[in-house]
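Appendix C. Worked example: Restriction endonuclease
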Amino acid sequence: MTMPERRTRPLHRGRRFDLRATAVFFALLATVLIAAGLTVRALAGAVQRRPAWGFVLLCVAVAVVLAHGRRRRRLSAARVARRTGEALEQATATALEALDTPEPAPPAAPAPAERCEEETRRTAGAPGVPDYDALSPEEFEEAIAALCVRDGCSDVRVVGGAGDLGADVVARSPEGHRLVIQCKRYGDDHKVGSQDLQRFGGTCFTVHEADVALVVTTGDFTAPAEEYAEQCGIVCVNRGGLLAWSAGAAPEPWTAGAGEADA
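Step 2, the predicted output written as structure tokens:
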């Protein structure tokens, strides 16, 4: 008896290894990883230079997460895109507003005239400070002499008058220096000019033999007058300095010229 021949199914052969496809796959994977690394590096640098952009990227990530979660709830793609765009637009506007906001400028230092006015307001009305504007020129000279006596000067004399050659008050400082003071009771709108300083500078040292020469005024000095005084070694005391001296808030003005007198 002849037995029927049984057909056997061919064994399934494994998929043949393709070297070219494998190399292409790994090349594409490396390219994707490099591009992702460069992108992350660029974003990190941008966030470091502009911290506001970090807030923008965070808002974008939150918007993407919200869009993904709402997609699970079967929301339409158009609605997700619209809400993502709104969130991104709001985040961008906030970041731009933060970038455009200027930093507050540091407070500027007060100008010399403003400092003088501030010193005047601070010391005017202080105990022991007379109202110099209400004094006559002669009374103003007496007031300056009284300040010298108060601060330890000796041999204080008021010598102002006709033929005084610029000297209104002379005194001897506690350090032994001969002081020659010219008093100018002027208003706020009248400044001591360079001609006044030149006339005084021609006599204070040569005629009156001053060790320290001072010009005290209830007003202020012009810039040329201050330049001339600095060149000649004359101490200028304007309204702010006078009030500070009277209130005891500043050192005696003759100490400013004592160093040159000792030289």
